[in-house]
Structure formats: structure tokens, C-alpha cells
Amino acid sequence: MKNIRGAVAIITGSASGVGAASARLLASQGCHVVINYSRSEEAAREVAAQCEQLGVEVLLCRADVADDAACREMVAKTLARWGRVDILVNNAGITRFCEHHKLDGLDAQDFHDIYGVNVIGPYQMIRAVAPAMQAAGQGCVVNVASTAAITGIGSSVAYAASKGALVTMSLSLARALGPEIRINTVCPGFIEGDWLRKGLGDEQYEAARTHNARQAPLGVTANPETVAEAILCFITGPQIVTGETLIVDGGRHLNTVPLARR
User: Fold this and answer.
1) Considering 37, 123, 159, 205, which one is annotated as catalytic?
2) Domain 8-255: CATH architecture, name and number where available
């Protein structure tokens, strides 16, 4: 297992959910962390305080990853603080909830917005950290996609398509940026938490959670902490692994059946 004590990690979208859980888990391993947010400053500050209590240094950085200048500035601030960046977790993501058969429920701007954060954002972040990682001779990137990339289901067609693009981009860049930089992807299924609850509403959220758990051979759904554990595996696990995609859903993808239309 690779020791990451004293390393530096940027985790995008780390004010809540998987990003926050990842920041706390990396901090518990002695890794300094950059907490990134675009709107939720209060929540981001709380996560930062939790990480500092674990004995590491923290940099709080507001940045929209869809903005290339903001990505470059966040990396520049990280390098100014520590002189290095060892780990990048591309977790920031957005969606628009729309049933897949409702083709008029999405327009071109929805696709542009979702791709801007979910695909272009990770590309811009990787491009921004690449010089420092290459100069150091090593670096690790973990992209957070979704089982929507593999199954074609999820919160909307645009979201599923964006996550599919992220998986493909991860393969391309893992090939292009080796041997210095390793790039892998985690694909969570249904993740318990406020993000999906707010998007679906309480009733549909509970129905979806129950449905996904029943369809999963392990009888569970993911939560932010279990996804963070998968991310950590790519960071500290075998250093020979790159270009891989890990599904984190209790085996739910083995029995993929979307909810019936209402």
C-alpha cells in the first residue's frame, strides 16, 4: 500500500457527498487536502475544519471547474502553498433530472452545462495538474463517473452521456499521460444522500433506493463513504494500475432494470 502521509490532494466538489467523504478519508491518512466548492461555502468550511481536526493542512478554494482559468488558479494556489500536487480526485458533477423518454425535457443548453462540469471540468483539471505531476515523476488521478456511463440509466440522458464520455476520456488520458500519471475511474451506482433525495423527492428517492438494493446481489446501495473507500483504493493500491474502471454498486449493474414509467 502506498503511504500518502504528507502528500497533497485536490478534491473537486468536496463540500458534500462523495467529495467531502473523500477529503476526510484522505486527511485521515495524513494527506493535505484542497477543499473545492462553487457555491456551498459554509458546508465547505465545515469539511475543511473536520480535515484540520485530523491533523493535516487544508486549503479552501472556490472554483467552478467548467471555468479553465479557475482550474488553473486552484492548481496555482495549491503549488504556492505546498509546492506539489500528488493526487487529483475529479468529483464535481451536476445533472438535470429528466426521465429518459421525455425528449423535450432537455435542450442543448442542458447538455452544454452538464458536459461543462462533468467532462470538460475534469479535462481542464487534469491539464492543469499535469505539468507538476510530470515534473515530480508521479501523480494519481481518480475520476468519479457513474454506472449511468455503463448502463445508460440515471438522472437524465445528458447525465448518462456525460459520464460515458468521462470514462472514455479517462482511457485516452491514461494512455497519453503514462508513465508519470495514473488515471482511473470509479463508477458508483445509487448513492445514498441529500443530492439524490433533493433531485428525486423523498418518495421517489426511497423507492429508488429500495429498488436498487433489492436488485443488487449484495443487497446494498452505495454511500459517500463506500465510494470514498474505492477512490482510496486507486490512490494507495497497486501502483501498476491505470486506465481501469471500478463499479461501486453492490453488484446492481448485474441486474439492470430501470424503474417502470409512472
Assistant:
1) 159
2) 3-Layer(aba) Sandwich (3.40)
